Amino acid sequence: MSESTTIRWEQDESGVVTLVLDDPNQSANTMNAAFRTSIAAIADRAEAEKDAIRGIIFTSAKKTFFAGGDLKDMIKVGPEDAQRVFDTGTAIKASLRRIETLGKPVVAAINGAALGGGYEIALACHHRVALDAPGSRIGLPEVTLGLLPAGGGVTRTVRLMGIADALLKVLLQGTQYSPQRALENGLVHELAATPDEMLAKARAFIDANPESQQPWDVKGYKIPGGTPSHPRFAADLPAFPAGLKKQTAGAPCPAPRNILAAAVEGSQVDFETALTIEARYFTELVTGQIAKNMIQAFFFDLQAVNSGANRPRGIEPRPVRKVAVLGAGMMGAGIAYSCAKAGIEVVLKDVTPEAAAKGKAYSEKLLAKALSRGRTTGAKRDALLALITPTADPADLAGCDAVIEAVFEDTSLKHKVFQEIQGIVEPDALLCSNTSTLPITGLAEGVSRPADFIGLHFFSPVDKMPLVEIIKGERTGDEVLARAFDLVRRIKKTPIVVNDSRGFFTSRVIGQFINEGVAMVGEGIEPASVEQAAAQAGYPAKVLSLMDELTLTLPRKIRNEAKRAVEEAGFTWPEHPSDAVIDRMVDEFGRTGRSGGAGFYEYGEDGKRTRLWPGLREHFTKPGVEIPFTDMKERMLFSEALDTVRCFEEGVLTSVADANIGSIMGIGFPAWTGGAIQYINGYEGGLPGFVARARELAATYGERFTPPALLVEKAERGERFSDA
Ligand code: NAI
């Protein structure tokens, strides 16, 4: 098929040209080479036939309007491709600019998702009508892939809404808005309920504005809110560094920095120069490693994980109708809310009616907040709440075809609650436990149908955290795994699938990070430096504060249980240098973490963290003990990445996509790395570089950094770390 057919030119008798975006070779339109040729040909024709044209409408024949840049291509781009990337982008922008300035009204009829490049095409139009389709999204999410919108996205949003709004509403967060919220935030001009209405509104704009121009092409135009020399911007300025700081926490995330620079510098110059500035900053990002890491994780891996690469094949979906949630505490309450939000009926059981009602009250609280922010309606709130039945009576669980247990972390209690409900719930109900540490195989031994038993490890707070770690026990059947997977997807969470082991994948690996931070305190390093290193490595939570949240007694308990198991099996327990620090903190100083009111930090009466405990310096810090900051950061990152490799060796993990997504979304492995395995693949020098550095760390800081055999073998064979 000819390349030039990715855009169809359909002209009616009145002179309205509809440009139908419809790449014949792909399910979605992207900014590929064919598009570049097509849009140039369209611009030529529009200029040549200008007198016969009354107006132009961009729309698409695909489900989505336009998908954006071609990420398959972008992930391969290296520094040597910089000029080609720059020129390609410039060519597409020049074509769009010619259409934008033709002197005829140009309208975007946004029939479905318009993200990234898709929304940039719409921005080059004078008017934007969006179809209010469920699930449709509009925005510029490039920052979440380590990029910036270089199809004119920075230049036009700055001119459309002013620097402050462009940065904060569109560019720096990468928010993907629903059509309704896109309207409220000024990304589109009007909504339409049906495709016909959308096209009618587009035509109405053309009829009413025969001389339409972009605001920035009108003589005397000024950027709303002014440019940085303007007093209003000066007043806003302090907000940017704070917002930026929060977003990147000092980590090597160049995208927000480049976006800010492109917006500010671009606002001081004419439109065409601004486009060039934007392109330069983009080229720098796309040719670097961090964008590749983020595209790999947040586009390819996320898609693989969510599309069911790990769901057993050939098993017919059997949607869950009614879920029993056992335990209405923090986790149970959040799980009940997430299920009801997906339209699933929930029976929320606790020991007393009051405790169960308190669990339901959590949903009421979340919904009241959503209502006050205009994110839900009274009717939707009522419908959701009506789906949750709080109870203390096991008989109310009749008819449930799935059970999610979230009672205290205690094996015998968990066994007891499953025994209590058997014979009441459906005979083949899916049996899930939200345990965060107890091996699933062992828990399954206490239920009558171990093949139907599976781990569903949610993260706190459940309504916000996107990940669920599905844990297969030794006897878990494939059908059960498929049903659990489908349930997680139905409640719009991202499922990773792991095999059973102590601490599974996430709880085990996050322990390495925490232990490493605590060990540094034990070595005599300033605790504030340890916290700073975690932030600069890009961890969303600082290491000692995270330890306090999880409580210091928890790792002790887990460690002692694991130690016993290892020693019973006849092996020697590998002591970790953090053990002694935790023991002293608990035994000598009685500091058990935030819930105990004192840990590595001090806490106010309201439970809020106030400052690092000065006693740390007195009892642990050794003046003059310093190690390079890079070592501190890499000790944290390597400890987790190496343990992730061990999870592959031990068969806990079987998919690189799961490892990358699970590490970022579950335990806060820094997003710029693209996840624990992508960090290794993208490390300077590739696998051999990573292995060499791990050996250096092992020589200086301890054997725990010795690279596992699996990694060394792959490095020697010149491979990347992949599933195969
Ligand atoms: P929680 O202490 O807030 O809630 C436990 C609830 O279980 C309480 O409301 C309690 O009354 C109820 N319960 C006790 N015995 C019961 C019985 N016989 N029947 C019904 N309900 C009973 O605990 P949380 O934090 O919600 O944790 C629950 C489970 O989730 C634990 O296994 C925990 O390890 C796991 N988990 C916790 C996470 C967290 O961040 N807190 C994260 C992931 C998993």
From TrEMBL:
Domain named 3-hydroxyacyl-CoA dehydrogenase C-terminal: residues: 503-603
Family that this chain belongs to: In the central section; belongs to the 3-hydroxyacyl-CoA dehydrogenase family.
Cell wall biogenesis/degradation as UniProt keyword: no
Pathway: Lipid metabolism; fatty acid beta-oxidation
Domain named 3-hydroxyacyl-CoA dehydrogenase NAD binding: residues: 322-500
The name this protein goes by in its record: 3-hydroxyacyl-CoA dehydrogenase NAD-binding domain-containing protein
Keyword terms: Fatty acid metabolism, Lipid degradation, Lipid metabolism, Lyase, Multifunctional enzyme, NAD, Oxidoreductase
Membrane-crossing segments per the record: none
A Pfam family the protein falls into: 3HCDH
Catalytic reaction annotation: a (3S)-3-hydroxyacyl-CoA + NAD(+) = a 3-oxoacyl-CoA + NADH + H(+)
